[in-house]
Design a protein that fits this description.
Blueprint: H1 19-31, H2 36-49, E1 70-75, E2 81-87, H3 93-103, E3 108-110, H4 111-120, H5 131-144, H6 171-174
Parallel strand pairs: 2-3
Antiparallel strand pairs: 1-2
Helix pairs in contact: 1-2
Length: 181
């Protein structure tokens, strides 16, 4: 009996509202037979570059200090993956993450270390905070000053679990990775 082999065609799928932006940038890479990682990077760069997208990249929503802080990651496999976090001066953290993945043994660079790495590898510093994002942040800070936040209640301590006092009826209390009985 002959097995029929289905011809493989590339696909690209996005679930966020800005997915059409990402797909439009990533699809041409796949259509010409390019690597999927190149398509992913181009898709992310397109979204990071769009000032109308307020969750990532240029035009992203500022943090509580009024600064843009970006994170990015990329993955080929569990062994070949990397990320960067708390990037404040570079618009494309996905590209920095890819460079970390390709050139270092590290999985994650954060803050100043990630920024120093980006500078060494020639990434261009950019102004990330747009006037629209700054206006949003100013409104947010005014609104925050009118909100009264109740203090967080302390978390109750669990009973100690050790060799002298194991609790066999609830092993998950002693070993969080175990499912509760």
């Amino acid at each position: 009996m002959r097995r029929l082999m289905a011809k493989r065609f590339p696909i690209i799928l996005s679930t966020w509202s800005f997915g059409t932006i990402a797909n439009a940038a990533g699809w041409p890479v796949l259509a010409r037979g390019g690597k999927s990682i190149d398509a992913v990077e181009q898709a992310c760069i397109a979204v990071e570059s769009d000032p109308q997208v307020d969750s990532v990249g240029i035009g992203g929503t500022p943090d509580a200090e009024g600064k843009i802080t970006l994170d990015g990651s990329i993955m080929l496999s569990p062994q070949k993956s990397a990320g960067v976090a708390c990037i404040r001066h570079y618009a494309h953290p996905v590209s920095i993450a890819r460079k970390v993945m390709e050139k270092t043994p590290h999985k994650l660079l954060v803050g100043e270390g990630a920024e120093e790495f980006a500078a060494v590898w020639g990434f261009k510093k950019e102004k990330l905070l747009t006037p629209e994002a700054m206006a949003w942040w100013k409104k947010w800070t005014i609104h925050q000053s009118t909100i009264s936040i109740a203090p967080i209640a302390p978390i109750a301590k669990k009973p100690a679990c050790d060799a002298k006092n194991p609790n066999p009826t609830t092993p998950s209390a002693c070993f969080p990775s175990m499912p509760a009985a």
